[in-house]
Amino acid sequence: MRLGSTLFLMALLISVAGSVRASSGSPSIEQMRIAGKEYVRLSDWARANDFVSRWLKRDETIELSDSAHRIQLQIHSPKAQINGVEVRLLFPLAQKGDSVWIALLDLKSTFEPILSPPRLRRGTALKAVCLDPGHGGKDPGFQVGSSQEKNFTLLFSQELQNQLKRAGWKVSLTRSRDTFVELPARPDIARRRRADLFVSLHFNATEAAASTVKGVEVYCLTPSGAPSTNAGGEGGGAGWFAGNHYNEENMFLAYELQKTLTREVPTEDRGVHRARFCVLCDAAMPAVLIEAGFLSHPVEGRRISSPTYRRQLASAIVDGLDAYRRGLQRGL
To answer: How do beta strands 170-173 and 128-133 pair?
Structure first.
């Protein structure tokens, strides 16, 4: 893959020196340590990968584009858009003098899986999905009035299960009724059932600004050594977990699901995020957690209670899983 090999070469060169020349006549590849992390000059990466860069708003928003992709980045911010989809970087973009810098870990763990998707691993058929209806039993999840998250995640999962089966997927659920399942047991159920993918389904809520906060966000596991987007729900520490075996697949899966959900459903794009949720840390296969809307929003909350809207959400997820499978099968 063109992008993957370029990134590998850059990483290798950067590890040797702070400013090096890849070959005679090629541009210098520079590194800088910012807040203890390795950063690369964005213009070097853009040239190496045939992207054209331009300021959309000087010293605030920069755009990179080639024939197939468009990336918008904000200075001193982790916010980004890749082909119109909101994606949170692991570290904020930085500006030093006239140069813009991007974290090397973001090139490897955020850009590369999306722009050059990984290939399907040997022996993986990508036919079986384990759906995880969040909460259940003694754990109601978020509750807004009489609406309990656990009930809607189960109804949502059952609708999605039916649609996936019609689309040819083999589907299992971590719970099929209102029962409590311990968090570590959920990815273990997926492993024992030999699932190729794990998708945990949730709905969100907030007390602050409940009338305005809405939309969909998809989480995948945080790479080792990086901070998570969410303030809570961590699996402990910033180290390596079993789920990090699938960092590339996790990111590409989250991106494809966020894309289809926000393009096919009338909802706000809250972006792809990273977190160390227990169900993601322990997953023995590519895994994501979907927050499919806010129960606390007066309009979105009513929609979530509608079977028609949940069918629409489920259809978008089916399309996202199909797009993910096609992306990994390219070039095989």
So the answer is: parallel
Are the C-beta atoms of residues 270 and 206 closer than 8 Å to each other?
no
Res 13 pLDDT > 60: no
CB-based burial of residue 111 (10 Å sphere; 0-12 exposed, 13-18 middle, 19+ buried)? buried
Distance CA(191)–CA(189), nearest Å, equals: 5
Report how far residue 139's alpha carbon sits from residue 180's, in angstroms, rounded to the nearest whole number. 7
**Does the CA dihedral 305-311-312-314 come out positive or negative?**
positive
CATH of 2-115, one of 3.30.457.10, 3.90.1140.10, 3.20.190.10, 3.30.70.3270: 3.30.457.10
Place of tokens 């990483």: 11
The whole-angstrom separation of Cα 5 and Cα 164 is 35
Torsion of CA 79, 310, 192, 320, to 10 degrees: -50
Structure tokens at 69: 């992709």
Strands 197-204 and 79-82: what pairing? Answer: unpaired
On the question of pLDDT at 5 being above 60, the answer is no
What is the CB neighbour count within 10 angstroms for residue 68? 7
What 3-state DSSP class applies to 268?
coil
DSSP string, 57-87: ETTTEEEEE-SS-EEEEEBTS-EEEETTEEE
Assigned CATH for 128-329:
3.40.630.40
Instruction: State the DSSP H helix or E strand holding residue 301, giving kind and residue range, or none if neither.
Output: helix 298-304
Rounded Cα distance between 274 and 276, Å, is 7
pLDDT at 10: 52
Compute the distance between CA of residue 48 and CA of residue 27 in angstroms, rounded to an integer. Answer: 8
Residue 9 CB neighbours (<10 A): 14
For the chain, give every residue range classified as CATH 3.30.457.10: 2-115
Q: How much is the pTM?
A: 0.92
